[in-house]
Amino acid sequence: MRILGLDVGDKTIGVAVSDPLGWTAQGVKTIKRIGIKKICKRY
Description:
elongated; single chain; 1 helix
C-alpha cells in the first residue's frame, strides 16, 4: 500500500508518495498556494 504525504507550508504545498512497502517517499509535485481571498475574487 502506498502512502500520500503533504507538506503544507505558507507559500507552497509539497506532495510525496511512498514506495509500495512504505519505507521511502519520493517528491511528486510542489503546488503554489494562492490564498482564499484570491480564489473568492475569481468567482
